[in-house]
Amino acid sequence: MSEQSHELQEAVARFVRAFGLHQPGQTPCGRPIPVSEAHALGELAREGELRQLDLVHRLRLEKSTTSRIVGQLVARGWAERTTAPGDGRGVLVRLTEQGRTAAAQLARARQERFDAALARIPEDERDAVLRALALLTEAVDDT
Question: Which of 6, 79, 123, 130 is deepest in the core (most CB within 10 A)?
């Protein structure tokens, strides 16, 4: 392994721990909801409703995992499943009023967390940080 590869591994591991991404039961902004559910909630809040299969693709998770996540959102009273129009086998997922409230609370907490992080980065380095994250994302994105 090259020295730079090792440094990248260590830097990413430190970021994951500092941001709290290794804590499966809560979001990086400290909300007691699994990160996978938070991502599903965010996608549903952004779109209003999604076919469950579209949610699979957006979350980049297996169908069974996404189905379990949707089931958890339904159990919390945050989402509901219905048959997709024109597709008797398709499932449409939409947020309930409770779900929209939870999504809004999560979005506020996330915004506060990112605002605080951004405030700690010198202004003249913020664009470089954003470019570096975009480059890293593209480099590891295997889709």
Answer: 79
CB 94 within 8 A of CB 85: no
φ/ψ region of 48 (left if φ > 0, alpha if ψ in -120 to 50, else beta) reads left
| Reported pTM | 0.83
Q: Write out the H or E segment, with its range, that includes residue 46.
A: helix 35-47
Whose CA is closest to 31, among 82, 103, 122? 103
CATH number of the domain that residue 83 is part of: 1.10.10.10
Q: Choose among 86, 90, 42, 96: nearest CA to 67.
A: 90
Read off the pLDDT of residues 69-87 as tens digits, 9 standing for 90 and up: 999 999 999 999 998 888 7
Has residue 8 been placed in a domain?
Answer: no
Domain of residue 82 covers 20-140
Work out how many domains the chain is built from and give that number. 1
Q: How confident is the model at residue 1 (pLDDT cuts 50, 70, 90)?
A: confident
Torsion of CA 31, 63, 93, 55, to 10 degrees: 70
Secondary element (H or E) of residue 64: helix 63-75
